[in-house]
């Protein structure tokens, strides 16, 4: 599969794109609990931490939804759909600040974890600039899903920071919480409404839960 351009004139989402792209606040978010029972043990069998496992599951789910791989073209002529998207997430540093690390997509959790661990460790030890020690290489900003984890809070809602013309999907993971004999984790997905509707977010959560269950 290759990247492709979808002209505004031929896009089935033309009306929604025109309606939402000029709004001052065109994004919406939904928070849903996902089941992560015994994720620690299951992830360890693949050489991954729970943190890496749920990042991987979310990234695979985002790649499975066409709308989450799209970005608005700056000239308003349509959208670009990437064949593959990757993740940028936050890492808590040793000095109490945080930095960003790029997590490249790999369908296999083992390979994803093996590649991600050195980058996470570099960023954890770094200081100063938010992107210090990250190695994004040739990954364009438009081909990233922005992620963050708040393991201290079992939140029921979350609002992401967005800059001007920022249409990237954003995902936040919260604290594990036991409920009804299951271990649950809140996940907030924030998307640009010109690109995604509720049906796309619904597909994302279905796919993410399937990915988590398959570990």
Automatic annotation (TrEMBL):
SUPFAM superfamilies, sorted: CoA-dependent acyltransferases (SSF52777)
Domain of life assignment: Bacteria
One Pfam match: CAT
PANTHER family (UniProt xref): SLR0299 PROTEIN
Protein name from the UniProt record: Chloramphenicol acetyltransferase
Species of origin: Pelomonas cellulosilytica
């Amino acid at each position: 599969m290759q990247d492709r351009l979808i002209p505004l004139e031929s896009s089935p989402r033309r009306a929604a794109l025109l309606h939402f792209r000029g709004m001052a606040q065109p994004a919406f978010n939904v928070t849903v609990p996902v089941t992560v029972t015994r994720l620690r043990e299951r992830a360890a069998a693949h050489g991954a931490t729970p943190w890496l496992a749920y990042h991987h599951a979310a990234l695979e789910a985002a790649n499975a939804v066409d709308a989450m791989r799209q970005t608005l073209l700056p000239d308003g002529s349509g959208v670009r759909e990437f064949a593959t998207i990757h993740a940028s997430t936050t890492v808590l540093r040793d000095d109490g600040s945080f930095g960003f690390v790029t997590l490249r997509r790999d369908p296999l959790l083992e390979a994803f974890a093996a590649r991600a661990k050195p980058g996470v460790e570099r960023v954890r030890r770094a200081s100063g600039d938010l992107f210090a020690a990250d190695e994004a290489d040739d990954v364009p900003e438009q081909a990233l899903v922005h992620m963050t984890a708040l393991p201290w809070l079992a939140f029921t809602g979350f609002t992401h920071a967005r800059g001007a013309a920022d249409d990237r999907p954003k995902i936040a993971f919260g604290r594990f919480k036991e409920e009804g004999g299951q271990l649950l984790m809140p996940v907030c997905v924030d998307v640009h409404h010109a690109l995604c509707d509720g049906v796309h977010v619904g597909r994302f959560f279905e796919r993410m839960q399937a990915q988590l269950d398959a570990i």
